[in-house]
Amino acid sequence: MAGDRAILDVTMRWGLAKVLGLTDAQRKLRFRITVKHVVDEEEGPGPEPVPHASGRSGPRSASANARQGAPSAPGADARRLSPGVLPDLISLPAFGISTHNEGGRDLLDFAATVYNGGPAPLVAEGFRRGSAPEMDAYQFFYRGERQVASRRVGTMEYDVRPSHSHWHFRDFAVYDLTNRKHKRLRTSGKEAFCLAPTDAIDLLGRGAVVDPGNGDLSTACGDPTSVWVREVLASGWGDTYSQQRAGQSIDITGLPNGSYWIRVTANPLNRLKETTKKNNVSYRRVVLGGTAGERTVKVPKYGRINSETYFGGPGGMRLG
Hints:
Elements: E1 5-11, H1 14-19, E2 28-34, E3 37-40, E4 44-47, H2 59-68, E5 89-91, E6 95-102, E7 105-116, E8 122-128, E9 134-143, E10 146-159, E11 166-170, E12 173-178, E13 184-187, E14 192-193, E15 199-200, H3 217-220, E16 228-233, E17 237-241, E18 250-251, E19 258-266, E20 281-291, E21 294-298, E22 317-318
Parallel strand pairs: 6-22
Antiparallel strand pairs: 1-2, 3-4, 5-7, 6-7, 7-17, 7-18, 8-9, 8-16, 9-10, 10-11, 11-14, 12-13, 12-19, 15-17, 19-20, 20-21
């Protein structure tokens, strides 16, 4: 390192690169780093602020919106935005798959991640009309720190169920179980989401940030008294929901044993504006077995990756 400049060389282990199908050249990266220092008026010298793509510098504009109430209807610019200010919601295959029986119902549990692979953050704000049970939801778009457009994207609702207790944005994703021809057979009860960056997925993409800001659901998604909330999914980060959260399991009671597919669909009603919708759907095959009250599930590899080894050994796991 010389002064404020440095070079960082990163090499992926050959075994992992081989599994991912990467060449020797592709498994090596070089980063040129420039360290910048700024002075915070309250805290003194510190690191460079996280750029707008993290969703943390935009609150100056967002706070103004909160004081003024819901934004006025967007103009044509919201329909003709450049790709550089748009997110890209990508659904990843389900994982952490298991079964359990509760209240006489057989349930299929899983975890699902939708991540933002676009160059800009997904910013959704909710504005409450007095003490109304729902908030009007808007998607905001930024170029740098300047808000360039907004559009109405449905509603937010307050979820009072255990392990939730915060404002949820509707229409972010849906989960269902399909047959071989991808016909829907059963649907998850999960229908609304508190958006937050829970997992780093791809921090090398355009616009990705290392520090996405607040991922604490208790503060990011408000409480029963909130009149405004701002939920952000930063570029390069995913929002993962697991089977421990109430309402996500798929009821498989009465389904015959055999092969099925867990389908994860991001932006199901196309209300959110993004760079492309071609990567919004993913499928993960599961094989159901067992008998009523004692259902089992086996999960074949996804390509060359056996994600279920971590979640209880080959073939998935069984929770009693």
